[in-house]
Amino acid sequence: MTFVILAAGTLVRMIGITRPLLGNFATKGVVYAMIARNFASDPGTLFYPTLGVMINGKPALHMTEWPFFSYFVGAVHRTLPWLSIDATGRACSAVFFMLSAWFFYLLFRRMFDGGPANHALMFYVFFPLGIIYGQSFQLESCVMFCITGLFYLVYSWIEGKRDVWRGVFIWSLASTLLLMKPQMICLALPVFALFAADRNGKGLLAGPGLYIFTGLCLIPPVVWYLHTFHVAQTSDNVFFSVLYSMKIRAFPDPRIFTPDFYLRIARTLSKEVFSPVGLALAGAGLFVIRGLERRKKYFVFAYIIAMAVSFLSLPRKIYEMNYYFMPVLVPGAILASYGLSVFRSRAVRGSVILIFIVVSVVIARNPAFRTPGNEKNYISAAEVIDQCIPEHARIIVSSAGSNMAFLYYTGRTGWTLDPAAVDRTGPETKAREGLGMETAVAPEKLLEKYREEGAMYYVCDDVSYLKRANRGLYRYLLANYSPVREKDYFIVRLAPRK
Predict the structure, then answer these.
(1) In the chain, fewer beta carbons within 10 Å around the N or the C end?
(2) Do 224 and 172 lie in a common domain?
């Protein structure tokens, strides 16, 4: 049965493996894809995650988390260049997630001996959020691999399997996890809970050694984030950074004092995270696990508390970006598996499982496998652009959808321009120049600024959208430059009329 669940989970994630990185959080996906593509062509970007968008005439830097997953995908693509970067990223994401599912299964079977391991695995694999982001070009699958692998190795260490290599792997997974998601430091709580419940724990990861080892795990992320602070303060081509994120975040965030914040969390948990069926079973599981032995209860409740701390530390992200809920799948699957056990009849349990899977797939279907109609034309537009624009020409793009995604699919570097007059020069540049996030700059002025920095063409994927959004910009382009194409896609060569 274990093999069947893993195989079914893998097949589900293969459905959209060749689909473009469009739709659900498209901009986030293409940002990581840009970093991977640039790393594949230039490994020197390893400590300077580089995008395809330009700031002040230079490729922009994305100085937030260290995107291990993007670099891994870039390395695979560099080795297997005949695979598209999109398919490589989705395939690697699916592999990381299913490996995380295997580690989760091993952890559950070892920690909850005699517990419903296959049921827990089934919930973990088929929770809607796991389907959505278990094949997306984002860090989440890799994060889950680090989390489940880390807990499995830590627990096996507690049980007496202690050797140098196991310690090295624990350190590697913990450090990589914090490099990608620093807020996951909160997961030290369930780790400490496991050791607190183990009265006979000895060795390196016990007593003072546990705190020393934790300090060693913090060295790589601390060094990385100090590096991002330095680059953000000294470079004029930073698109976004942790430092800027800290500057614009209020602490404490006023959202945490509003009922709407907690209602949003409840809605997200009941829909795309667990599904209504999964959440009901997890709720029932809270009552069932009270009868389990101390170590098991300590781990689950400490993990839930850690997630609550994470939610309160990043309320805006939790409110707006559901992929920040991914780590919740671990306790959710454990609780749901025990909640399922309240049904004594095997036939009833089977029916509940079937309903759960169907509901989960229906919830995940659109964000995981559907490409919005307004973004489908990016691929055909890119083919037209290849015919009209030289390969290495830098361009300015506007789109009714994601400007960043459109730029990515043109295969070129350049600038994004919002016809609605929102300055897209980058938040770091705005902060350095004393401009607020809402500062509006006339798009004609921005276009001329980008042209001076090297832009040779302006491209809009829908000429009717440009006319609706800013007819003045449309007229300005016609009056001062020569259109190459006007019918469907609007392509203008930025050479002044003679």
Answers:
(1) C
(2) yes
Asked whether the beta carbons of 132 and 272 are under 8 A apart, the reply is yes
Given the structure tokens 């020069």, which residue do they identify?
A: 425
Q: What backbone phi and psi angles, to 5 degrees, belong to 459?
A: -135, 130
Packing angle of the helix pair 117-126, 2-14 (nearest 10 deg): 0
Q: Is the peptide bond before 252 cis (omega within 30 degrees of 0)?
A: yes
Distance CA 453, CA 361 (A): 47
CA of residue 383 relative to chain centroid, distance: 28
Q: 139 — phi, psi (to 5°)?
A: -80, -15
CB 450 within 8 A of CB 415: yes
Instruction: Indicate if 268 and 409 belong to the same structural domain.
Output: no
- 491 in the same domain as 404: yes
**Does residue 248 lie within any of the structural domains?**
no
Which of 323, 352, 369 is at the close of a domain? 369
Helix residue ranges, H only, 112-184: 117-126, 128-133, 140-158, 164-180
Extract the tokens encoding 122. 């089934």
Sheet containing strand 481-485, edge to edge, reads: 238-241, 58-63, 50-55, 414-416, 395-398, 457-460, 490-496, 481-485
Q: Are 5 and 120 in contact (CB under 8 A)?
A: no
Phi, psi (degrees; rounded to nearest 5) at 51 = -100, 175
Rg of the chain taking only CA atoms, in angstroms: 25
The domain boundary residue, chosen from 317, 340, 369: 369
Tally of residues, the chain: 498
CB atoms near residue 230 (< 10 Å): 12
Q: Which domain holds residue 417?
A: 373-496
Residues 147 and 280 reside in one and the same domain: yes
